[in-house]
Amino acid sequence: MYKIGITGGIGSGKTTVCKVFEVLGIPVFYADTEAKNIMVQDEILIAGIEETFGKNSYFDDGKLNNKHIAGIVFNSEAELAKLNALVHPAVFRAFDRWEESIDPNVPYTLKEAALLFESGSYKMCDTTILVTAPLEVKLARVMQRDQVSVEQVKARMDKQWSDEEKAKLANHFVINDETHSIIEQVLSLHHYFLNTAAGVQI
Ligand code: ATP
Predict the structure, then answer these.
(1) Which reaction equation describes what this protein catalyses (predicted)?
(2) Which domains does the chain have, with CATH numbers?
(3) Of 51, 76, 119, 189, which residue is 20 to 30 A from 170 by alpha carbon distance?
(4) Pocket of ligand 1 (CB under 6 A)
């Protein structure tokens, strides 16, 4: 099945863009949401997390001890890399299971991931989309959505590559600022992907 990876910085609006594709009937795998689910469901992953970060990574009722994990990984690149090395392969396994459950007649699927490029998972996609927005727009959106301070949003942004870095690897772009229509851009990409996925040269 033709696979398209979609990413963008925090607050760029990648989930919003994906919702427009969903309206067009395109199935979307939300890797970041799935990562949260499998951290409490995937036995192999849970065992790996407990082994690496200690048994108190989980509460007795099976819920993830977010505070414990965040305390370890937030200020340590090395510990964050260990967590990613456990979670990313588990997300790939979940994606494979998800893809098997998809109607084979759909023209293509989307995989939305904040760290599509950073994790290397873009290599498993046929093509990629980068959603962009100006910094001040992204900051305002996330502060409003998550009720957090500008410093908190910037700290989260610092953990991701810049748009310039991501743009070097991206094949397609959606500009989600206050002047461009995302619906028009998604329709245009959808038309292009329908033809490309069908093997038509346009
Ligand atoms: P994150 O990486 O934090 O999950 P994201 O890139 O998926 O962010 P969204 O959640 O889609 O971004 O958008 C962030 C916020 O901005 C949401 O509250 C969303 O409703 C709003 N938003 C996104 N695009 C637009 C737009 N074009 N016009 C108005 N609001 C928008």
Answers:
(1) 3'-dephospho-CoA + ATP = ADP + CoA + H(+)
(2) 1-27+109-202 (3.40.50.300), 32-101 (3.40.50.300)
(3) 76
(4) 8, 10-16, 114, 141-142, 145, 176, 182
Nearest Cα residue to 93 out of 176, 143, 29: 29
Residue 157 alpha carbon to ligand 1 centre in Å: 14
As a dihedral over the C-alpha atoms of residue 25, residue 29, residue 32, residue 36, rounded to 10 degrees, the angle is 110
Strands 127-132 and 3-8: parallel
Ligand 1 mean position, distance from CA 122 (Å): 22
User: 16: closest CA among 189, 187, 176, 190?
Assistant: 176
pLDDT at 16 over 60: yes
* CA gap 71, 153 in Å, rounded: 17
